[in-house]
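Sample entry (233 residues):
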Amino acid sequence: MEPLPEDWTRALAVVAHPDDMEYGAACAVAKWTGAGKDVRYLLVTRGEAGIAAMHPEESIRARAGEQERSCAAVGVENLEFLDYSDGLVVEGLELRRDLAAAIRAHQPEVLISINHRDSWGGPSWNHADHRAVGRSLIDAARDAGNPWIFTDAGPAWSGTRFIAFNASPQSGHFVEVSEAHVQAGIASLECHAIYLENLDEPPDPTAMIQGAAEASGAVNGVPLGINFELVFV
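Predicted structure, serialized as tokens:
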């Protein structure tokens, strides 16, 4: 794989749910914020349907607090929510408009997200919200630069260079990270304790994140890495 370009200063991470950024991408975020880059988070939903044993209103409060602490663990100070319904996000004009408005408002040089492909690799099937958000984000990045599209969503912004999708089966780029960055990424996932404890098979954050970073490093000739698929806009 090729090194991901890091000659930029501002990025906006756009994902569907609390915890989406924390399965690897947050390690790279820790590196970038530590280097003085401005990384902001925009979550399309509040993840209210993600805990079967918890009422959505209670889940919203719990998961928002977990995401705030998770952001702090990797140096992210700006966190926003769009309040779409968890599990029911639909790819289309409404979402494209809201994402284009956010891109115009934050003016990121780089967008960050997670795998938007149908599969995680092999026979697995990706979450509908992940697919809808990722695909709409690609379109919205182009929409944001067109002054004649979504004219009620702020002045056009065409300065976004690419979108980096973490954990895509079609990854072609990587970010070299340090052990400290990996530990920060692990800490950020551990902040989602309530969510993780309610999964049928709770993951081991250390084993998951450390293992993925070591595997990427082995492929890319560095000690530790995080993989991304880049889509240039």
